[in-house]
Write a structure and sequence with these properties.
The complex is a heterodimer of chains A (110) and B (114). In chain A, 0% of the residues lie in helices and 56% in strands. Chain A has strands at 5-7, 10-14, 19-24, 31-37, 43-50, 55-58, 61-66, 71-76, 85-92, 98-100, 104-109. Chain B has no helices and eleven strands. The chains are: A mainly beta (110), B mainly beta (114). The A-B interface holds A 3, 29-31, 33, 35, 40-45, 48, 88, 90-103 and B 4, 31, 33, 35, 37, 42-45, 48, 50, 55-56, 58, 88, 90, 92, 94, 97-108, 110.
Amino acid sequence: SQQGEEDPQALSIQEGENATMNCSYKTSINNLQWYRQNSGRGLVHLILIRSNEREKHSGRLRVTLDTSKKSSSLLITASRAADTASYFCASAGTASKLTFGTGTRLQVTL
Amino acid sequence: KAGVTQTPRYLIKTRGQQVTLSCSPISGHRSVSWYQQTPGQGLQFLFEYFSETQRNKGNFPGRFSGRQFSNSRSEMNVSTLELGDSALYLCASSLSGAHGNEQFFGPGTRLTVL
């Protein structure tokens, strides 16, 4: 399978703490994207980092990319209960399809 | 601007039947992709259509097919349904789909095969 992997599979933190999720992918990429999914609904695009970028920020999100290790990480700072969701990384090559990772289930408790 | 819409949202079918799912992309988006999501296999790419042509295809059997109309709306069809086809089917649209552009997902159609 070409599917990427994410760890941890599940993460439980308290509101206000930071959450870090890691993603590994298998093939060379044009960019890597992160998506959020709430309770089996549609995915929401969070951030896209291109293969020539090493770090990108968007609000409380920080993404890093290491193409030599074929890995990326997503950091959510000062987490909120509303951040509770599943998070997926998706690698994109030159073709149009996205190859998704296995996902991390994040639970943020009050 | 309206988001991606998918109909129906829920569907129950029995083995051997066929099903057609519909997706309306964001206005102006010409690329529509379909994904299957199951607890066991995760999110898997089915196919992508651009300007009424299938541009990319995943590793699914021929029972899974799709098409795109001139207004960019897309349908996917699954024939001879199997229990393992029970899944959330997600449609995503993007401007061109090239080089992994950001994709906008619909809410999905949850298919249950009995």
